[in-house]
Each structure stands twice: as C-alpha cells, then as structure tokens.
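Self-study notes.
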Amino acid sequence: MSLSWRDRLLISLAPAELAWVRLAGVVKPQAIAKRVLPVEAGYGARPWDGVVEALRAEAAQWVHHRLAARIVLSNHFVRYALIPPSEAVSGPDEELALARFHFQKIHGDASRGWAVRLSPGGSSQPRMACAVDAALLQALRQIFPAGQQARLESVQPLLMSVFNHAAGDIPANGAWLVMAEPERACVALLKGKTWHAVQNIKGAYADAASWVDLVERERWRVELDSVPDTVLIHAASNAAAPPRMQGAWQLANLHTHWPGGLLAARDGVYRNALSAR
C-alpha cells in the first residue's frame, strides 16, 4: 500500500519540547490529533536524550497505526557548514569527504560520530552541509523499527525543512532566512539559488530588532558586493507579522501551510513540525 494512503505524523524535537500533529487526507489535510509535551532539557548526558525519551513514550500509541512519520530536528541538534567549491573533488563520495573534512576542521574529533549530508548541487558552487549526531538518528530509527505500522519516512534539520517547505516564498534573487527558536537562531543567505552563508548560534532572538541585528552582523562576513535586502522569518513562538521594514531590510514571515483544525494565532508551537509537510 502506498505511503500516501497513510496518515502523516509530523514531529518536531527540541531540547525542551516535543510537538506532534497527525494529519489525515492529502488534498485537504485535517489535523485529527496534536500534542505538545514539555521536556526536561537537562535530562541525560546528551542534549537530545530527554526529548527522545519523550518521543519513545509517545510512540507506544502509534505502533498499530498506519502512519508516515516525518521528524524535524531543532537547530540545537544540528551543525551547519558552507562547503566552498573545489575543482579537486569529483563525485558524491569525494564531495561528502570534503564536507566531513570541513566539520573536522571546525569541531575536531567530535565530528567523527556525526552523520553528514550535503544540499543538492555540484562541486562548482558552494554547498550547504549539515551534521547530526549519528546516535540520535539511530535512536529515532529504533523508535520506529522496520516492520511496524508506523514508519519513519524522514528526519530533517530545521533549516533544510523550512527551506524545502517555503521555497516558493523566496524571491528569484534570493533572501536571508532566519529561524528563531528559544535560545537559538540560525541565519542563512541565498543569493539567487546559491548558498553563501550560514550561522547557527545560541542566544535570545525573539523580535524583529534582534533578527535584523543578526543579519547585519552576518552581512559583514559575506564577501559579496551586494546581498538581497529581503529577510524571511520562521519563528515558531511568534505568530504576529514582523514590521514590513526595519531600516533598509524588508521583513516577512515565511508562509506556513496550515491544515484544517489548526490556526496560526493559536498553534504556532506546531510550526516547526508542519515544515515537514
């Protein structure tokens, strides 16, 4: 039976919160169940231990349900790097090895235990690379083992999930993407279709002034004569539209496709999970 006939289970994992939405229907999906669980952020030795244990407990109710689970990982759990073009590499294996080399330069031996992925494209242009603790991915696969009715369809870092979900909102000349979470923000620059920068940093970024401040600091790191002046915001905790202009910057929320049964003003906590649609 096709996975399209399964209900979709959209899940977001963050250090202090687990959120999930179950969607039925394809053409006009409806949210038929939802839940948010607070998590003890300091539980376990790893930052994701608490939320994985919470998900494991929740998953007991889904064992006999035909579900396609898609998980979005908070940027707290992901490292990003921009991989410069290189004429010395050829083919997917060498490109992935180059990405691993860059993570090792930045993070040292800790990166040996990470699963690394690259954005689509060739070695002639910069590529976005993401790295996730391989033990986290293994723990998620164990929660949705092969052979049970509820299947794990994908695990996506928040930056890439948001980009794929809202690609139609991004102007042809590119934009700055800002993802704001509690105690973390990620900012990335697309000029045209090419990635040019990424920063994933700790801190409180809860309003337009802080988002623009982050973009302006990153702008001076970018070796480009001109950059897009559009800043697109994905902030799960802030349903209000940002001011249209902030200095020279044009701000707008990235669009979220709200299924029936969910409202932006009430259900912003599910925005990260819904980016997996």
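Second protein, same conventions, sequence then structure:
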Amino acid sequence: MIYDAIIVGAGPGGSSAAYVLGSAGWKVLVVEKENVPRYKTCGGGLSFHMLRKYFPFSFDAVIESRCQSISYALGKNMVTHPLPDNQMGMVMRDRFDAYILSQAPVEVCQGVHIHKVSEQADRVVVEDKNGATYEARYLIGADGASSVVARSLGLRRKKPLVAAIEVEAAASPEVMSRFSGGAVFIFGEIRLGYLWIFPKSDHLSVGVGAYHPRPGELQAALKRVMTRFGVSLDGCKIHGHPIPVYTRREKIASARTLLVGDAAGLVDPLSGEGIRMAIKSGHMAARALLEGHPERYPGRVLHEIGASQSLGMVLIPVFYYLTELAFLFGVHNPFANQAFMDLLSDKISYRGVMLRLFATLPLFILTELTAALAGLFGGPARRQKIRSAVYSL
C-alpha cells in the first residue's frame, strides 16, 4: 500500500499534521515508536487561544488545570500578574498528544521503531528495525530532537540544544493550594536558564532548563530551589529531555520530506516552549502538502517562525545577563507580561513583543512613579487604584 503521507512521531506536531491531512481525505499512516499514550517530558503549559486557533474541537477533556495568574520570582522578589479569562492552562503530554491523535481519521502503527528513511523519485520508503517497509508519496518527520528521519536524509545537521530535566512531584495539600492558581517561573538560580512550577490536577510539574549546563548543575539547582519552595523531590524520578533550537535558515525539508516540531528545532529559544511551535509547524507542513507545494514549507517556516525566533535569541543575553534590569522593566511591566501571553497565544511574534515593550515603557515608568507618589500621601489603596486604572486599559 502506498499512502498519501506517512508521519513519523505522534507528538503535537505529528498528530496535528495527521488531523489536517486525514480530515482532508488523505490516506495517512502515523508511525509511533511508543504505545500511545506515552509520557513526554514537558511542562505542559499552553494557551487556550492557540488551541482554538488551530483546532475546531474542545480540549476540556485533557485540561489538568486553568491558571488564574502567572508569577515570576527573582531571589526574594515575586511578581504576580492576573490572567483574565483563564488564558493559560496545563496538560499532561501523554493525554494531550493522544487526544489530538484520536481526532485524526488516520491509520496508526504503535511500537514501531524506524531504522532508516530513503527517498525515491516518486515516493518515500520508511523501514523499521524489523525490516518492514512503508511507502508514501510524502513524509513528515515529527520524531523529536534526535530525529531518525532528519539523520537518514541529511536534514538539520547542526542542532543547538538546551538541556532540561523535569519531575512530576506529589505535594501536600498546603503546597498544592499555594501553587494551584497559576504557573511560576524562577530566575537567577542557574546560568542562562530558569526553573518552573506548573500545577496539574493532583501534583506539580517542576523542572529546570538551561543553555550549556555543567554536569550535575541542573539536578543541583532543581533540588535546591524546590526545597526552598517546599516541594519535596524525594523518591521522584527525574526525566531528561534535549530541546533543539532553530536559530537561522536550516535544511528542514527535502523534495518529499518535511520536518516539524522538535525534529526541525522549532522551540522558542527564550522560553523553551515547544507545543505551540509543533502544532503550528504541523499545520504548515500539512497545508503545504495539500496545496501541492511542499517546496514552499521551509520559506514559510523561516518567515512565520524563524524570523521571530532570531529576535528571541537576541533577548537571551539581555534577559540572562541583565536579569535585574529585565525583571524591573520587563517582568514588573503588566503591558510586557500581556505581550508575552500574546506570544504564547500565537497572536504576535517576538517583533511584536519588543515593539510593545519599548512602546509602553514610558507609560509604565510614569504610572509607577505616579502611583509611588500617590502612595506616599494616600496610602497603598490609592497607589493600587492608580495602577489598576492604567493597567486595565
């Protein structure tokens, strides 16, 4: 049987492409090395607006928690911003990925380990470790940072990586109630990286990621910081995961094969967020195939994702080497926080974030100075009233 398309990998990128192609009537085979649902190291934070943008169905069945706020910590300084309309939610990747795949009218082969991929003039041939072969007109590689598809076809050879580890930690009712309202990002504890605490329905997902960490540095930072926040890691399994970063125009496609998600390195370079990029690139790859122009896919990725991520790379040294200034003028700024949320919602790019940050900075400074003066004479209530009046606009 020759399929219209074979998709290697059933993560958000592969499952999204499968949904689009299958819904269009294509004969699609999804090949996954694990048995779905399978655990995936991931914080699991995402935007509800982003999900509504790319899918016509509800995700209520797999939402672990809804965030009413987002907090940023630097040393003893904690800044919390409310999130109106529950903009952000949490999922477990095993259930989330399987849910998207379940909506796709496609054939799925689980427990299949792909050994190599080869392209011919009119088809792509996929071979598993047992020697079985599968053929299709096109192939989408969605098989992660260590993509067999990319390696077989000589795609994306240079792979800058961020290292991350995560723990699914049980917590006492007191600790769970403290973090149940929203996500927490912790800075200043590790070079070129951050830690996170994300609430799930019955536990906390906690982790740390950084560029070029020293051996044991991630583990030590995670244990030290989580102990300070009252989260015990005793007896918990540590999961590791490489995060590939797309930093420039790269070879992410051949004549009949397109890479999406982690396989293409499409992870946000500043935040390490990958779910949105996987879903977005999965839809882009599927659309390119449906249009009959797979050759347009790399250019679209560069235009719609790569250009933004290049600007994100510029922000990395600013944020991590000038952390206190970034915290003061960025994290404290509600306008900047909303810009960041709009980025996660796939409403704007990093260019939009930077434009909004610089455009609102004078208003933010003026508001804070005015509120501080008002607080001297009218007390905390007067100060908060001025801040609320401006930031609610």
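Instructor comment on the second fold: The chain has a mean pLDDT of 92.
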